[in-house]
Amino acid sequence: xxxxxxxxxxxxxxxxxxxGWERRVIVRDDRDRQEWDKLFDRVVVRCGWRVFAWALMxxxxxxxxxxxxxxxxxxxxxxxxxxxxxxxxxxxxxGSLFQGRFKAxxxxxxxYGWTLSRYIHLNPVRAKIVQHPxxxxxxxxxxxxxxxxxxxxxxxxxxxxxxxKETRRARAEYRRFxxxxxxxxxxxxxxxxxxxxxxxxxxxxxxxxxxxxxDDVDVNVPLHRQLAWRPSQSQIESVVADDFGVDVSDLFxxxxxxNEARAAALFLIRRLxxxxxxxxxxxxxxxxxxxxxKTIKRAEQRSEDRGSWKRRLRRLEKILRxxxxx
Length: 326
Hints:
Blueprint: E1 12-19, H1 30-47, E2 50-56, E3 60-67, H2 72-91, E4 103-107, H3 113-121, H4 123-126, H5 141-145, H6 156-160, H7 167-183, E5 198-199, H8 202-214, H9 233-244, H10 260-272, H11 277-283, H12 289-305, H13 307-322
Helix pairs in contact: 1-2, 3-7, 9-10, 10-12, 11-12, 12-13
């Protein structure tokens, strides 16, 4: 069912897995894991995904997420191809890292949050990587127990809210729910998947089957709205220019030394929107795509090396998130 992986929908809810070639490892040490984590964060923010649970294993990973825009394939391509390129360069290898395309199961609604997130969070235990899920650093379970430092895109509250509004009680109930899975054999929620791609009630599955039968091409629901907080390219450029005390036209000036405003604008546009590098190369002075990518990469490196630069970018992002007209 090759076309099942191409079911892309506005507000689609998915369980996604991607495995290493011939089940070989996709991470060899914590440096690899940190790079995957960084790329995942970048893709989630750029695509505007809402993530409910995730777990990175040695030879595969699991995601449970929602795509407000129909952009699952684009985001997964950025994640897997970007990570594979980095991994191959670091370990001096060539060839495919992942086993073909990712696998995506379309889920009916968020009522599967508890069972699917538990299945994902117990994966490291089933794989005998750790004895308890909280011991695995590379999953979202830690944030379900203690939300400090949780990324903004992780909607752990949505999952816990299924038990009630009182967070402390919901946390305790969820922990017991997960630990019940440690003590006894539980049924995998994926056992109920129909046709390797649909997980939901019988009525919903039948409805989706009819929809697929009527479509000659992949399911792509037109975009009617974007996430409320996501800024436009012009808004980013305006906020950056104002913060750096320059004109917006100065952002497009090429071959200007230490043009930090330009670097900040390009970094934030790629982080917060789906504008392509090709488009930016044309708009920002008709330079090469490689030049744009290098500028963005330098901004990323500067953010890691200089705390003041990192704080400035975060402050600009916060301004963009809270603008009334975003």
